[in-house]
Design brief:
By secondary structure, the chain is of the alpha+beta class. The chain contains 6 helices and 7 strands, in the order E-H-H-E-E-H-E-H-E-H-H-E-E. It has helices at 13-23, 32-41, 77-81, 113-127, 151-159, 168-173; strands at residues 3-7, 46-51, 57-66, 96-104, 132-138, 177-182, 196-202. The protein has a 7-stranded mixed sheet, with helices on both faces. Bound molecules: coenzyme A. Coenzyme A (COA) binds next to strand 4, helix 4, strand 5 and helix 6. Coenzyme A binds at residues 23, 102-104, 109-115, 137-138, 140, 164, 166-167, 169-170, 173.
């Protein structure tokens, strides 16, 4: 499948909402109100992957710039994204691109769409002269191991390649490092049980 990555437009909202409702529970799918807010606040940080032959949306990523020192590493997704609205976006003072979302339609996973969405995000970090991009990687397979090990142990095994996690293994492959393992990140997520790895990719053009 051939696809292109472009900035999100209002005409994409219905398809983005449909994909997110398939992946997450309906209650936590993106809403028009949130997606409109992202475009009003920071259109440059919002991307979709579009299948060239059909125009169908097959993936999406959403980001904002945050003043990381305003936040504790242990704060959750709602704090970093102002409950999904991005009204805490601070392009004047912030030096961290916060990845609030990356998702790809289940039917076309492992076709390189997620990688391309991340490549574009890294390019944006460089264009804006930011220090880094950070995100929370929900530990999607942790629920299968929760009775046997802590989230820290789980992350260590994923880093060593002894376990595969559909989210964290993907992000490590994109050159991210784990800087913390946190609880209560997405408290209602039945797969991660709220556990997440805080991950970072540093802009190689910047030293500090
Ligand atoms: C995470 C996600 C965006 C990856 O998208 P994708 O388009 O399938 O990823 P890519 O095809 O670009 O994968 C690139 C590489 O990442 C790694 N990878 C991707 N999915 C993986 C998985 N399930 N397990 C292990 N490694 C994986 C592989 O190394 C892959 O390369 P390969 O296919 O040549 O082996 C996708 O699985 C998704 O939408 N998940 C649900 C939403 C979600 O949880 N998002 C993260 C929120 S924190």
């Amino acid at each position: 499948m051939k696809f292109r990555i472009r900035n999100t437009e209002p005409r994409d909202f219905a398809e983005i909402i449909e994909i997110s409702a398939k992946i997450y529970r309906k209650k936590t799918a993106w809403t028009v109100r949130e997606l409109e807010s992202h475009l009003n606040i920071f259109p440059e940080g919002q991307f979709v992957a579009e299948e060239i032959s059909t125009g169908k949306i097959v993936g999406m990523s959403a980001s904002l710039v945050v003043l990381w020192h305003d936040y504790e590493v242990k704060e959750n997704w709602e704090d970093f994204t102002d409950c999904g609205m991005f009204t805490n976006h601070d392009i004047e003072n912030g030096r961290t691109l916060y990845g609030a979302e990356v998702m790809v339609s289940p039917e076309i996973r492992r076709s390189g769409v997620g990688k391309r969405l991340y490549d574009v995000r890294k390019k944006l970090v460089k264009q804006l002269g930011l220090l880094r991009t950070r995100a929370g990687a929900r530990l999607r397979n942790y629920h299968r191991f929760a009775g046997k090990m802590s989230a820290d142990e789980y992350v260590e095994l994923v880093k060593q390649g002894k376990l595969k996690d559909p989210t964290l293994s993907f992000q490590l492959k994109q050159g991210f490092n784990v800087i913390a393992v946190v609880s209560g990140y997405l408290p209602d997520d039945p797969e991660s049980l709220g556990k997440a790895a805080v991950i970072e990719w540093r802009n190689p053009d910047k030293n500090s």
